[in-house]
Amino acid sequence: MRNTQRHFVDGPNSLWHIYKTVPFWKVAKNFMVIQTARYTPFLPMKNWMYKTFLKMKIGEHSSFALMVMPDVMFPERITVGKNSVIGYNTTILAHEYLIDEYRLGDVVIGDRVMIGANTTILPGITIGNGAIVSAATLVHKDVPAGAFVGGNPMNIIYTAEQMAERQAKS
């Protein structure tokens, strides 16, 4: 189950309440930083921008591929461990606006994690150290350390133990 905080709203859907939940100028600044970083080919510069302007927590040598889209409203709720790779066009969400409520949740991506291209990570998710997420996966629940997962919705393809057995055989 995802670890999110639920905030109920009255009246129109929760997205109509957006600037009661996050300041407009924060969203505008974050949008400009993210759009610049999405096209920046220099990984250290991209990480510096995310850490400095968005307050994301990013470990040493982690890499964000071209077109990665971190949460524009709450990027400070995203943590990426050391030496991880976030694949092309991946979206990392720390919020979701629904009809009667909005939800916020931290996203924690461990050390040495591989996220395949075109993956979407929902709010409140933890991806354990050494996990591999296949391309085009919808990560809607936590990923155990060392597991290989994929699909929409996400399923565990191999556990850490099964992965170790496969590697020992080859």
TrEMBL record:
It comes from the Bacteria. It comes from Planococcus notacanthi. Pfam families: Hexapep (PF00132). This is Acyltransferase. GO terms for molecular function: acyltransferase activity. It is an enzyme of class 2 (transferase). Keywords: Acyltransferase, Transferase. Its EC number is 2.3.1.-. InterPro entries: Hexapep (IPR001451), Trans_hexapeptide_repeat (IPR050179), Trimer_LpxA-like_sf (IPR011004). CDD domains: LbH_MAT_like.
